[in-house]
Amino acid sequence: MANIKSAKKRVQIAERNRLRNKAYRSAVKTLIKKYFDALASYQEAPSEESLQQVNQTMSQAYSRIDKAVKRGVLHDNTGARRKSRLMKHLKAATAAAAAS
User: Fold this and answer.
1) Per-residue b/e over 20-55, b at no fewer than 16 CB within 10 Å?
2) pTM of whole model > 0.85?
3) CA-CA distance, 44 to 100, in Å (whole number)?
């Protein structure tokens, strides 16, 4: 354990930041899972309502990813990569739905 006052403070700050980062990362993962669930239901039964649900969950995931990047929880490229992968899956699903 740290003996110097400034070192003790840094330990407290690091713990606070770790918990904040954990909350952001968890929220991002949760929203991405919800997005893939909505996308799976759209693929099973393509409809306008299910596509709207997919777009809404994607918007929420994008927002949370952008906030995590802004706060420094995620690196810029990591956020861009995750958003790109979400859109890639959506395009594949809509193309498959349009073909059938």
Assistant:
1) eeeebeebbeebbebbeebbeebbeeeeeebbebbe
2) yes
3) 12
Mean pLDDT of 57-64: 97
pLDDT given for residue 80 in this prediction: 98
Angle between helices 76-99 and 5-44 (to 10 degrees): 10
Q: How confident is the model at residue 50, as a pLDDT?
A: 93
Which DSSP string do the residues of 84-97 spell out, in sequence order?
HHHHHHHHHHHHHH
- Per-residue pLDDT averaged across 32-46, rounded? 95
Domains of the chain, start order:
5-99 (1.20.58.110)
- All residues at 6 or more sequence positions from 87 whose CB lies less than 8 Å from its CB, including other chains: 58
Which residue type sits at 64? R
